[in-house]
Amino acid sequence: MLNERALGAQRSRISSLLTSTERPGMNELLAYMVDGGFFTSPASTRYHGCYEGGLAKHSLGVFDELTAFNNRFKFGVDANTITITTLLHDLCKMGAYRPTAKPGSKQPYSWNPAQPKGHALLSLLRIVRTGVELTELEESMIRYHMGIYGSQECMGDKGEFKMRPDGMFKAWNKFPIVRWMYFSDEAAANAERVEEDIKH
């Protein structure tokens, strides 16, 4: 669990980082995140970050991991791209989970049936609907941040979901940092699980 001070610190850091990109539409997107409960949402129902503020903490963890990888391996990717993709890759989880009605439950959150379908694609849709434009690289980093687990998620011309399993491999070849986005997401989630196991 995170206290009010920790929740506030996470919100302040994320807001500052996103604002620093000076990307048009970012203020509107931040207002949308506040209204949608991004900063108090959990990251999952049981796997990692299953507590208030878990989503923001995970997003910052991915930011720190990918920033370190980018500095170490010299991908030459702009810092604003790292900021936008890592902090917004799981925007799809905003509103995805609701507190369980069972007191003392080992699973304090459950899936919200009113949540729209989609994961990475839903994150992309939520970002662009607020007016923030993404580059091809940024879209690829968010779309394929789940690696093979999300490689088939694709939207068709009529808004339907379609299969496109080859997209991830093309993106990995064109933009090597796309695969490191996946590694960063996994590394952050694993670090959270270890931290939570130690506390329990």
How would you portray this structure in words?
The chain has one domain (4-199). Helix content is 54%, strand content 5%. The chain is built from eight helices and four strands, in the order H-H-H-H-E-E-H-H-E-E-H-H. The strands form two sheets. A two-stranded antiparallel ribbon has the order 1-2. A two-stranded antiparallel sheet has the order 3-4. Strand 3 (154-155) and strand 4 (161-162) form a beta hairpin. Helix 3 runs antiparallel to helix 4, helix 3 crosses helix 8 (177-199) and helix 4 (79-88) runs parallel beside helix 6. It is globular. The relative contact order is 0.15.
Keywords, separated by commas or semicolons:
200 residues, two-stranded antiparallel ribbon, 4 strands, 5% strand
Continuous helix count: 8
Low-confidence stretches: none
For the record, give the distance between the C-alpha atoms at the N and C termini, rounded to a whole number.
11 Å
Major sheet strand order: 1-2
Q: What is the number of independent domains? A: 1
Q: Mind sketching the topology for me?
A:
Blueprint: H1 4-20, H2 26-36, H3 54-73, H4 79-88, E1 97-99, E2 109-111, H5 120-129, H6 136-143, E3 154-155, E4 161-162, H7 167-174, H8 177-199
Antiparallel strand pairs: 1-2, 3-4
